[in-house]
Amino acid sequence: MSQQIHTSALVKNKIGIPQYLIISFLTIFAIGAQYFSNLSYVLNQGVIQEGLHISSEDILLPSVLSNLAFALGVPLGPVLTGKLGLRKNYLLFTFMFLCGSVIDLISTGIVTLIIGRVIQGLGSGILFLTILPVSLRAFPNKIRNLFLFMVITGLFGASALGALCGSISLYTDAWRWLFLLNVIASLLCFIIGFFGLPRQEEPVQEQRKVDKKAVVLLCFTFLTLALPLCHLSPHGFSSIYVWPFLIIALLSLGLFVYVDLKAEAPLVPFRTLKAAKPVSGTIMAVVSHASLIIAIAGINGFLQHNMELPYLNLTYFYFWFFIGIIGSAIVKTLLFDKLGAGILGMLGSVVMIYVSIQWRGIEPDIPLPFLYLQIALLGFGVSMVLVSGALGTALAGDIHKASKRSATLHSIRNFAGALLSPFVGWLLLRQNTFHYQEIKQNLNIESPPKQLELSVKKSAILGAYHDLFTLLLILGLIMLVASVVKMMTGKGRSLVKKEKQILQNE
Q: Which residue ranges traverse the bilayer (predicted)?
């Protein structure tokens, strides 16, 4: 902790700008650049596919492997920061992200695209828990609730802007400029970090001697997962490239958890999530993250395959997603200390349930204003629940172990997200095939005319999206239950401490 206070003071003295603004910039543009890339790639991968002449199966690989690399980097961030110090670690992996962005910018095929995205994912994953905890401590007590506004608008906003720019990319039929934005963002982070972060830091008081066996097992687990996750969507669980490697990865993961639980300085401190308060918060964060993945996959496919929404309207659609996130940031900033994570999580969960119910029966003739309202509500609800769960978990219990609880939550959350994306792709293909066969049987036609065939295919994929939104509804109910439990365990600590509490701590 003393190191972080020392770091903050130096930043303020050297630059002459409030330290929390410097750290906020370094946080948003370092981590947000990866979130931006993830969502923009979901939208514009068709443009990249045509530009680089990549097959429909191969175009999915960069996203799958980048998400895995990011999830691997998250638990490694605190360890490397403890060894290298904040400045060296931040600059090293910001430069790594910059290199990945440059490779993607000049990419000529699937191999270079994968290499660039994996480098980006690993670099930003390590940066995640390097700089995010520092940004919370950098805010002065009186305005610490503004940290919530920064996190939601900066990080969730980066995802929304990624989707927005991805739709613009479809409209302009150009994609390299998106990676150019990543190059600019990481270059700015490197320059500002180079001059803004201190050259000399106080020695870290608590050295984390992490068990090397745990690190090896974690890396082996992720490497073993790469092959089956890349083959899951097109080939399914029955493929020889999927189920054997999933079994090996599952055994390796179980062994990692066992070794890490026994370790004195665990890589992922699972033991910090024993009580109901942090467990319920973790469920809120993990399930809301999963909900976002499912919702974006479903609604984006519906807009392009069923509504055939013009690209310009698609841009407006994701603009309203961003508006919903800003609304959540304002509400969260003003009310978190007054109401607590549980009540705000309940509010977000109810909103998510409403959107899920509406989308379970969505049809191509839905009026655009209703659609814009619903995506705004989705942005509001999912960011409300996720940040409530994440911050509620960090502040649940001994404040000195807040960073460990946060590290565990985000490691689990990003690991689950990396696994879920290929699963959603497989589920959509499976349900699409099921509904297609079902409709053909009901029509009693083996080889329907071309026009009817097109109508059958659209009906089948619409049924698959409805199934996906049913799953979204189930997740919304889980979020609501977890939020209720969170509320029943008490409001928890406030971000902004009262003057009496500060004097007592001193």
A: 20-39, 59-80, 92-115, 121-139, 146-171, 177-195, 215-234, 240-261, 282-303, 315-335, 342-359, 371-391, 412-429, 468-488
pTM for this one? 0.92
Each residue's pLDDT tens digit, 225-274: 999 999 999 999 999 999 999 999 999 999 999 999 998 889 999 999 98
For residue range 366-398, list pLDDT tens digits in order.
999 999 999 999 999 999 999 999 999 998 877
Check whether residue 179 and residue 249 sit in a common domain: no
Domain identity same for 244 and 387:
no
For residue 118, CA distances in Å to 63, 76, 104, 156, 281 come to 8, 15, 10, 21, 30
Q: What is the CATH number of the domain that holds 150?
A: 1.20.1250.20
Query: 5 Cβ partners below 8 Å, 6+ apart?
Result: 137
- HSE-CB for 260 with a 13 A CA cutoff: 20
Closest CA to 306 of 452, 169, 449, 454: 454
Give the phi and the psi of residue 365 in degrees, each rounded to 5: -90, 15
| HEC sequence for 31-61 | HHHHHHHHHHHHHHHHHHHHHHCCCCCHHHH
Domain total of the chain: 3
